[in-house]
Amino acid sequence: MSSNGISELHENVIDQVLDLNGSPEVILQATCDLLHDTMPNWSWVGIYFLQGDQLILGPYQGPETEHEKIKVGEGVCGTAIKENKNMIVNDVSTIENYIACAPNTKSEIVVLIRYQDQVVGQFDVDSDNAANFSEQDEKLLLEVADLVGPYCRVLSAKA
Ligand code: SME
Q1: pLDDT tens digit sequence for 47-84
Q2: Is the pTM of this model over 0.90?
Q3: Which domain holds residue 103?
Q4: By alpha-carbon position, which residue is closest to atom 1 of ligand 1?
Q5: Which atom of ligand 1 has the smallest separation from the CA of 100?
């Protein structure tokens, strides 16, 4: 762990995100691929764009999901928007309005993506392991969210 509380693995991921180039679509897909392939037990990594009162599925890596649209207030994803806060759920079976993407999912993290203080989307990450996500993971996703916020702003307008 370095002095700023970010692990070497996290620094490495951020460096790799900084090295990405291409269109917003390419960068966001590559970001999901990178997080999925690098972070331990991140079984599904996706971006939802916020459009009005709905979340629209953007790029993702992991098993296919049928949840292409989620209303604000529904599930962990919609609750994060409604309450304007990031969510770490250690055991998804405790969430009343949970929307199951894959039957094996045990824990989940949602981190809001902002552009100029406006929420434009979110990272949604599932794990097959219970309590897989830490505050360090939230910090990592927040840093990555800062980097990709402008691309999400562009694509959420198109979604
Ligand atoms: N589990 C999320 C739905 C999205 S899928 O996991 C891809 C939720 O409860 O909002």
Answers
A1: 999 999 999 999 999 999 999 999 999 999 999 999 99
A2: yes
A3: 8-158
A4: 99
A5: 1
